[in-house]
Design a protein that fits this description.
about 525 residues, alpha+beta, Pnp Oxidase, Chain A, Elongation Factor Tu (Ef-tu), domain 3, 5 domains, 26 strands, about 25% helix
Length: about 525
């Protein structure tokens, strides 16, 4: 007995190609089989009843095939008997091409797919279009409970042959029900684990460890996290939008946000993160956070607790690292996570048709945040140095370019890199107003740092400061509350007035007038050239 499907589909031309490509023997068995595969059995009926889509091909009067996709709820295709299937034509489906083709040639080819199990059932048959008034019994069977579309017509196909096969390249696709069934064991285990954790927490005293929260901070600008992306193994970016969908405050490239975090002792603090997104986007800000497991806990909390939906009440953008509008050319130099403000600078300069070049040093390409999108967006104006040695070799001439009037250099990255480039700029005569920098960590401690003491003029207290601690750490250890925030010398929160003694300024925020005329200094990073400082506190 010959396979009905192969008898129709395997024409002499098809068989000749099978022979030519060496697969004829594989299909020859279909010429002699126990069953002709022209009667639908239980397996076919169950498969057809579970499908929610089909592909149907008809042939036009010009000889061209026309393939139509049809869909509906699972079970919309009915097996009427071992020879016949039918499916409804819902209201609004005026299938002129398929119906027109069938009016002259009733032959159809139907393919039903099961992407989850990568199976395919192919049917050949003769189709007829039945109007709603002609077969009320049929339309009663095709009407689907709970499905709003009304059945107006029906396609009835008398099957003459079918074939099963498992193509190699069907992309798996799963329905919500299939996913729910597959993940049910995982959900049960997760629920069991959650109940176990809750039980242990009830039995144990609470620990003062930071936990995620749906809302943090008391700043005037609410921002909700709408996207989280892992840029590198240690850098994660967070997209922030206004909870009410309003435009966010304008900013210029180089600005940063003060965002709330919880520290390991449970206290709330803030961290300053540069905005890396383009300044012309008023709908969202993007910040990137480098996880530092050896730090004080702020970046760890951001990585572990900030999530989509978390509301951060921070401050509007503040800019102490702005582009000079008079610059004729800008040289942007980033080290590691220092790329974040410079990425925004490059976007702003590109939008303004400004002249610039962007240089980015990182431990490796894998750890270089934004490397691929920056290369795509800026082409040869962006250069990545995946080796610190190469970066040090090339950055010297880059800084020297700022000796030319109108050329400005902007540096952001590790304190050691900034200090080295700043000293080089000083030695070769780069005007201070043409060298700009911002650091994300405190300046490196100097080998010459010595112990000193601080006299608090108002209270008369004296605080001893060791060579290994900052002035701010020393006064805090003495139980004196001094407002502070960034602890890297970029926010001026811990600024105090020096009454007597010579400060060693290491901040990035105070102007020369503020230091010299007003006698201000930042306790978080600065030290002293004298063994004693008296401050107005």
């Amino acid at each position: 007995m010959s396979h009905a499907y192969s008898q129709i589909a395997f024409t002499p031309a098809v068989r000749a190609l099978q022979e030519h490509f060496g697969s004829r023997a594989q299909y020859a068995a279909m010429d002699e089989i126990p069953s002709a595969n022209d009667l639908l059995g239980e397996r076919e009926a169950a498969f057809i009843a579970s499908r929610d889509t089909l592909y149907q091909a008809t042939v036009s009067e010009t000889g061209w095939p026309y393939v139509q996709h049809r869909g509906g709820p699972a079970g919309f295709i009915k097996v009427l008997d071992e020879h016949t299937i039918a499916y409804p034509d819902f209201r609004g489906n005026l299938q002129y091409i398929s119906v027109g083709n069938l009016s002259r040639d009733d032959r159809v080819s139907i393919i039903l797919l099961d992407p989850a199990k990568q199976r395919r059932l192919k049917l050949l048959g003769h189709a007829a279009l039945v109007d709603i008034g002609a077969r009320p019994d049929l339309f009663g069977r095709l009407q689907l409970d709970g499905y709003g579309a009304r059945v107006e017509r029906a396609f009835v196909i008398r099957v003459v042959g079918f074939d099963w096969n498992c193509p190699q390249h069907i992309t798996p696709r799963f329905t919500e029900q299939e996913i729910a069934a597959m993940t049910a064991p995982l959900r049960l285990r997760a629920e069991h684990a959650e109940r176990r954790v809750a039980e242990l927490e009830r039995q144990s005293p609470p620990k003062p460890t930071p936990a995620s929260a749906s809302m943090l901070g008391n700043g005037p600008l609410p921002m909700v996290i709408t996207a989280v992306r892992q840029l590198t193994p240690r850098v994660r970016s967070f997209e922030l939008q206004h909870p009410a969908g309003k435009d966010l405050p304008t900013f210029q490239a180089g600005a940063h946000l003060a965002l709330p975090v919880l520290l390991p002792d449970g206290s709330e603090s803030v961290r300053h993160y540069s905005i890396s997104s383009a300044p012309d986007d008023r709908q969202r800000y993007e910040v990137a956070v480098l996880r530092e497991d050896g730090g004080r806990g702020g970046s760890r909390f951001a990585h572990e607790a900030w999530a989509v939906g978390t509301v951060l009440n921070g401050t509007p953008p503040v800019n102490r690292f702005a582009l000079d509008p008079e610059a004729t050319h800008s040289v942007l130099i980033a080290g590691g996570i220092g790329i974040t403000p410079l990425k925004a600078m490059a976007s702003q300069l590109a939008a303004q048709a400004g002249s610039f070049e962007l240089h980015h040093a990182a431990r490796s390409r894998k750890e270089a945040a934004y490397a691929d999108p920056l290369a795509t967006e800026f082409g040869d104006r962006y250069r990545l140095y995946p080796s610190g040695t190469e970066a040090r070799t090339h950055f010297g001439p880059l800084v020297a370019a700022a000796r030319v009037p109108g050329v400005h250099v902007y540096v952001c990255g590790p304190a050691a890199m900034i200090d080295a480039l700043r000293e080089q700029a000083r030695q070769i005569g780069v005007p201070p107003e043409q060298f700009h920098s911002e650091r994300f960590s405190a300046p490196a401690k100097q080998p010459t740092d010595a112990p000193l003491e601080i006299l608090l003029r108002r209270s008369g207290r004296v605080v001893q400061v060791s060579a290994q601690e900052t002035l701010l750490e020393a006064v805090e250890k003495a139980g004196i509350a001094v407002p502070s925030s960034c602890r890297t010398g970029i926010c001026r929160t811990c600024t105090v007035r020096v009454v007597k003694g010579e400060p060693d300024h290491r901040d990035e925020v105070l102007s020369a007038a503020e230091r010299e005329s007003n006698g201000l200094m930042c306790l978080c990073v600065s030290r002293a050239h004298t063994p004693r400082l008296e401050i107005d506190w």
